[in-house]
Specification:
Layout: E1 2-10, H1 14-22, H2 27-34, E2 42-45, E3 52-58, E4 64-75, E5 79-89, E6 92-94, H3 98-101, E7 107-115, E8 118-127, H4 132-150
Antiparallel strand pairs: 1-8, 2-3, 3-4, 4-5, 5-6, 5-7, 7-8
Helix pairs in contact: 1-4, 2-4
Length: 152
Amino acid sequence: MKKIQFKIDIESSAEKVFETMLGLKNIETYEQWTSEFNPTSTYEGTWEKGAKIYFIGTDEHGNRGGMISEIADIIPSKFVSIRHYGMLDGDTEITQGEQVEKWAGGLENYTLHESNGVTTVTVDMDTTEDYLDYFKTTWPKALDKLKSIAEK
């Protein structure tokens, strides 16, 4: 797996950025910025340490799918670590086999650091070679959208 990193400075408090990013007060803020990855992007579950969470959306044929993950760690307004371990195909959970072996156990970490009213969000994630170009193009767009929402 490859490790990639993205950063953005947001003129807002770490608390507000964190709440906006995770959709803690309104899931729509999460859905807005993650729509860059999939226009129907959402999640089901909670942001509690050890909790199972689904990151889901529908494909061009209307089929529901996504990632099965666990909140590996969370420190409010500072850090969240998501460990991906399976795929959702409709209502079927796939946690073993060729489809998930390449990336199962991969982490997606978000670190927030606030200084003088500006919060730097750093995203560190594991990915496979197949998704490298996609993420290099899509993450900056998603973070720009998060910035515009959190700065309102």
